[in-house]
Design a protein that fits this description.
The complex is a heterodimer.
Chain A lengths: L2 E5 L4 H12 L3 E6 L15 E3 L5 H8 L4 E4 L5 H17 L4 E5 L27 H17 L4 E5 L2 E3 L4 H11 L5 E2 L8 E3 H13 L7 E3 L8 H11 L9 E2 L1 H8 L2 H12 L1 H8 L2 H4 L1 H15 L5 E4 L4 E4 H7 L8 H7 L7 H16 L6 H4 L1
Parallel strand pairs in A: 1-2, 1-4, 2-3, 4-5, 5-6, 6-10, 7-9, 8-11
Antiparallel strand pairs in A: 12-13
Helix pairs in contact in A: 1-6, 2-3, 3-4, 5-7, 9-12
Chain B lengths: L3 E6 L3 H13 L3 E7 L3 H11 L5 E2 L11 E4 L6 H10 L3 E4 L7 H14 L3 E3 L7 H12 L5 E9 L14 H4 L3 H17 L4 E6 L8 E8 L5 E8 L4 E9 L2 E6 L6 E5 L2 E4 L17 H14 L9 H16 L1 E3 L8
Parallel strand pairs in B: 1-2, 1-4, 2-3, 4-5, 5-6, 7-10, 8-15
Antiparallel strand pairs in B: 7-11, 8-9, 9-10, 11-12, 12-13, 13-14
The chains are: A alpha/beta, B alpha/beta.
């Protein structure tokens, strides 16, 4: 029986993968960073190992005797690279048969080039952004593959289904009235159900030979933001008619104004400026200090993600608009060719699973729902 | 009377974050000894608070006189330690739940009664004024009778005890429900008494549950029902929502405004009813200090009205045990495609 070690086993994809692998003919080790996060996998019988990817000994302890390693771990900036370098090194030492890594479409930047329809498109992530670090990780995966550790980097867009964050974001945004559809919602919405990404991981285990390059994994359908908005609005007892539509041009005009908010945010978060301010009356004076802290906290909560739209006379969610403008539909031709990947479910079905999860864990549509919302 | 000499058994997360600070703040007690099997852990506790409390690794090594202990060890060890303390005439404050089984809970209570020792369980949220005020609303009915209720707690991950005891079913006795819903069960029993019927769903499937829902029905006066929902995988607005005939009272545990009322869908602060006071996080008293004060008052036999109830704490264990026995699967087959 092949043995698989899953790093980041308690996360969004991890818990789904562990449940699926448990049903298949594999021996599974769940490696997690903190016992506080273990809850999502405590119901399974798989052994749980506490592992720190910044510590090679603890990685070795987790994956010793395993055939395959799946890396679903999260991390922050520079740490992400150190963690993956450590993991690759220990995988090599332990003669792991394959390392399966999860990349992200953020490597193509906020506004991807039309050529990023295919994996070979230009990576345009802003330096030191999350996407940039994911891109650097993909380079490490390619290098690992070329130097003897068979590796593959699966590249998903927003992962959806139960616990799907983007579904939560759109529902919450519609609820607070900050969601707008751009271009009548006709723009492509790239998502992948967590079952599909797990299926791709399972296929990556049995793959004969890997080339270490990125492979898009999506639901492979023509789901649009209009489809998502319609399904999300329905959860709230609303319809598409309740969601304002804004043209791309109008949004870009408004979004120019985000620069002011971003500038203030950047300024307030700049370490040098903070040090300078510490010597000024602004910080020495208690009242002013309190005010500046409040402004900082407000920006820290991400309020600069909201823009005022004169057309809809409301604040609009900037981040969700930006995501709509990505525009490109990532193709899964390579996944079909290399992995023999066919999505198990489509985007509409993925939302239906989310609705079931929303009912079970939040009480949506139950007789107590009106009490808690 | 001398200051009560109190020992701490188990120097884990709850001791560090709750009990040690309240022991060190109190004028009524002398923090006398730490009983902890890991010397390193106990020393680190001393270092963290800049104190030098004597440390022993076993209860047998406690040779100095102590009046009481605060017991913060894993749930499955409560019975044995409580009984040994009562044999020596030591009063016990035990972290919730009292035990993993009703049989153990009864045995602990009987031992406490026969040795004339005080036994108190750490249902600390009763010491929040907002929680007490809702009790008053339920009792005095200014908003009419109760129609429905929801108690809920949801936090994705978090709280990682040093011992990792919650990773073991034997030690914890269960998952999210026994660990987190216990406080809400306590409030439900305090507010409404013993339910007539109940059902239970969780996602344990033989392991430890991360999500659970218990539904309770009350048949007294006019019947009403409600649920306790607990999740360790999603964030929920933690607190309780009680629908009365005239409005919905919302009691938030960790978010201001702590207490609001909703009439016809419009929510406002609950400050127009008599004696409502200022219910905010800023002015909320430290619940651990309040419960320590009650524990010492009970030991001294002070004639005051107590908030804690050992009967409710024992019943809490009984009902939890029965809920687990009645468990059904929560609908969460999201990965079976």
């Amino acid at each position: 029986m092949a043995k698989i070690c899953v790093f980041g086993a308690s996360g969004f994809v991890g818990r789904a993968l562990i449940e699926r692998l448990n049903r298949s003919n594999y021996e599974v080790i769940s490696a997690i960073h903190s016992p506080g996060n273990a809850w999502s996998i405590l119901r399974f019988e798989t052994p749980i190992v506490i592992a720190d990817l910044l510590n090679k000994a603890s990685i070795g302890n987790a994956l010793r005797g395993c055939d395959y390693v799946v890396n679903l771990s999260l991390g922050r900036s520079e740490e992400m690279l150190k963690q993956l370098k450590n993991l690759i090194e220990v995988c090599k030492e332990n003669q792991i048969k394959r390392l399966i890594h999860i990349s992200s479409i953020t490597v193509y930047g906020d506004f991807p080039h039309p050529d990023s329809k295919y994996e070979t498109g230009p990576c345009k992530a802003k330096r030191k952004s999350y996407g940039w670090y994911k891109m650097k990780q993909d380079d490490l995966i390619k290098e690992a593959n070329d130097t003897g550790l068979s590796s593959i980097s699966l590249c998903p867009p927003h992962i959806t289904g139960a616990y799907g964050r983007i579904f939560h974001q759109v529902i919450d945004s519609i609820k607070e009235g900050s969601f707008v559809l751009l271009e009548d919602g006709a723009l492509p919405c790239n998502i992948v159900d967590v079952n599909n990404i797990c299926h791709a991981i399972e296929l990556s285990i049995i793959l004969e030979q890997s080339d270490g390059c990125r492979v898009f994994i999506t639901n492979g359908d023509d789901y649009t933001w209009r489809d998502l908005a319609e399904q999300a609005a329905k959860v709230l007892g609303k319809s598409l008619k309740d969601i304002p539509v804004v043209s791309k041009e109008e949004f870009l005009k408004i979004s120019d104004r985000v620069s002011l908010a971003s500038l203030v945010k950047k300024a307030l978060m700049n370490e040098d400026l903070k040090k300078e301010l510490a010597n000024t009356i602004l910080v020495k004076n208690r009242v002013l200090n309190k005010i500046s802290k409040k402004i900082y906290a407000r920006f820290k909560r991400g309020r600069s993600n909201y823009l005022w739209s004169p057309a809809s006379s409301k604040s609009i969610n900037y981040s969700l608009c930006k995501q709509q403008l990505r525009g490109v539909r990532h193709e899964i031709i390579r996944a079909r060719d290399i992995l023999n990947y066919t999505p198990l479910i489509n985007s509409k079905q993925s939302f239906a699973i989310f609705e079931n999860y929303y009912t079970t864990l939040f009480g949506y549509n139950t007789e107590y729902w009106d009490l808690v919302v | 009377m001398h200051k009560l000499r109190i020992g701490l058994i188990g120097a884990g997360m709850i001791a560090e974050s709750a009990h040690v600070p309240s022991l060190l703040r109190s004028d009524h007690v002398e923090f006398s000894i730490i009983v902890e099997s890991s010397l390193e852990r106990a020393r680190s506790l001393n270092n963290k608070f800049g104190v030098n409390i004597p440390i022993v690794t076993s209860l047998d090594d406690v040779t100095t006189e102590i009046d009481a202990v605060i017991l913060c060890t894993p749930n499955d060890s409560h019975k044995e330690i409580c009984l040994r303390c009562f044999e020596r005439g030591i009063h016990v404050f035990v972290e919730k739940p009292l035990a993993n089984t009703y049989q153990d809970a009864r045995a602990i209570l009987e031992a406490a009664l026969s040795s004339n020792c005080v036994l108190m369980v750490g249902y600390c949220t009763r010491f929040w004024p907002s929680v007490q005020y809702v009790k008053e609303i339920v009792n005095t009915c200014p908003l009419g009778k109760v129609k429905r209720f929801v108690f809920q707690y949801g936090a994705a991950g978090g709280w990682a005890p040093y011992s990792n005891y919650m990773l073991s079913k034997k030690k914890s006795g269960g998952g999210a429900f026994i660990i987190n819903a216990s406080h809400y069960l306590d409030r439900m029993l305090w507010y409404f008494g013993i339910p007539d019927e109940f059902s239970f769903w969780d996602d344990a499937k033989g392991g430890l549950e991360a999500n659970a829902i218990a539904e309770f029905k009350y048949a007294k006066d006019e019947s009403f029902k409600g649920i306790i929902r607990v999740s360790k995988t999603v964030n929920l607005d933690s607190g309780c929502f009680i629908e009365f005939e005239k409005g919905i009272v919302i009691l938030r545990d960790w978010k201001d405004p702590l207490l609001t009322i909703k009439f016809s869908g419009i929510e406002r602060k609950l400050n127009f009813l008599a004696k409502s006071g200022d219910f905010s996080l800023r002015t909320r008293p430290d619940m651990y200090s309040c419960q320590l004060r009650e524990f010492t008052s009970r030991i001294k036999g002070e004639n005051i009205q107590y908030l804690s109830s050992i009967e409710d704490a024992v019943y809490n264990v009984k009902i939890t045990e029965e809920l687990y026995k009645k468990r059904s699967d929560l609908d969460c087959d999201w990965y079976k495609i």
